[in-house]
């Protein structure tokens, strides 16, 4: 899915008890501060983020992960000129995430941000 106004692409794999999301935030995009009533684990694959979870703010890079407990505000900003690509795992699976994905628009696999062309 793509959310053009937010400069975000994402794909979701959903199961009975959890969601796995691959998110790509373009340079300059904000990872808006938010919270939700379930826990989240995330792993940054590429790019850099200025990340806030609760009262802690730090700059993170590829290979860094974070945990956001239920109801703890978290978010940040993409740093530099490279997209930030990360994986989120949410538990439990919730209709809220599926509702967010329903608001995006489908994008062909060859146009996904953060992927290399197979040409």
Throw out a few tags for this protein.
119 residues, mainly beta, Jelly Rolls, six-stranded antiparallel β-sheet, four-stranded antiparallel β-sheet, 1 helix, 10 strands, 7% helix
Q: What does this protein structure show overall?
A:
The chain has 119 residues and is mainly beta. It has a single domain (2-105), classed as Jelly Rolls. The protein is 7% helix and 49% strand. It has one helix and ten strands, in the order ββββββββββα. Strands 1-2-3-10-5-8 form a six-stranded antiparallel β-sheet, with no helix packed on it. The two termini are 22 Å apart. The model has no long low-confidence stretch (mean pLDDT 84).
What is this structure's SSE topology?
Layout: E1 2-3, E2 8-14, E3 19-25, E4 30-34, E5 39-46, E6 48-53, E7 56-60, E8 65-68, E9 74-79, E10 84-91, H1 95-102
Antiparallel strand pairs: 1-2, 2-3, 3-10, 4-9, 5-8, 5-10, 6-7, 6-9
Task: Summarize the model shown.
With 119 residues, the chain is mainly β. It is built from one helix and ten strands; from the N terminus they run ββββββββββα. 18% of the residues are buried.
Overall outline: globular
- Mean pLDDT reading: 84
- What is the CATH-assigned architecture? Sandwich
Total number of beta strands: 10
Structural class: mainly beta
Helix fraction, binned, reads under 10%
CATH T-level topology = Jelly Rolls
Beta content comes to over 45%
Rg, alpha carbons: 14 Å
CATH fourth-tier homologous superfamily = Jelly Rolls
Whole-Å distance between the termini?
22 Å
Instruction: Give the oligomeric state of the chains in this entry, treating copies of one chain as homo and distinct chains as hetero.
Output: single chain
Q: How many helices does DSSP assign? A: 1
- Uncertain stretches: none
What is the string of helix and strand elements? Answer: EEEEEEEEEEH
As for the number of domains, it is 1
Briefly, what CATH class? Mainly Beta
